[in-house]
Amino acid sequence: MIDKIISYINNKKLIKNKIKKISAFPLEISFIMNFECNYNCTYCFAYKPKDKSEYRQHKSEEWTNRFLDIYRKYGKCRLVLTGGEPLFYKDSIDFVIKMTQYHFVSLGTNLFRDIDLIQEIISKSNHENLFITASFHPERAKIEEFVTKMKLLQNSGIKCDSTLVLYPPYLKDIDHYSNEFKSNNIPIYFFPYVGSYENRKYPENYTENELKICKKYSNAAWDKSEKEKFELPKTKNMRCFAGVKTISIYPNGDVKRCISNKKTMGNIFDKNFELFDKPRPCELDFCDCQMYWKYHLKI
Questions:
Q1: Which stretches are annotated as coiled coil (predicted)?
Q2: With 70 as the cut, is the pLDDT of residue 292 above it?
């Protein structure tokens, strides 16, 4: 009985400390700027617009003004820009530059824009508030041009890295790609392919040879003979700060408490929109986003 009481008291202290820690975090906003993308990669599983009604509805100037309101109300936020392709619309360049003056910006892009626009980002943005993750897609971009743009960013002092999907047809050239990045001191992270190829489901059905290549470059590529399976954490009714310290914003302005939740909290362009005032129970049986590790009150 005494042990249970001590355990209860210790857990209460741990939860109190975690609440204090989370409360000190800046507001984290995952902003899907648009669903449109200039690429149409064979292996892409990102959501695609069903019709023009799902195309971007607000210009960058409107978004800029709204995020300045957010800055005035909540202070400096961590702004994660995704898509589609966040730089699909040309005026998004101005938006990114402006946001680095107020928020910390993490930009995920395929870096398709011409050198002159990359130079504009370099010359006008606050480098201290900008991180760029650039995805390299061999079926759409040339390695030499991509590396040139990455070096340009690096040499300017902007923090950046790159990613590449271990799509089966790419594996024969993976050593070449890796050497190009390595010889230019550009960080590159490889991720297993998730999807189907030639009637095989991946990553479960990488061949032994494919798996050998994957393991060489990615710790995430697991041996299919391993018995242990990764299980998503059960989070139903667990209190979570999603909606309080983090939100996801969609191209039409709709706000959801996290990327996995289907319910809309409201619209960011509604002047009466408010964040939740306290953590609420998670509505998902299993949390499949990073929020679990950061914002759920699990000890």
A1: none
A2: no
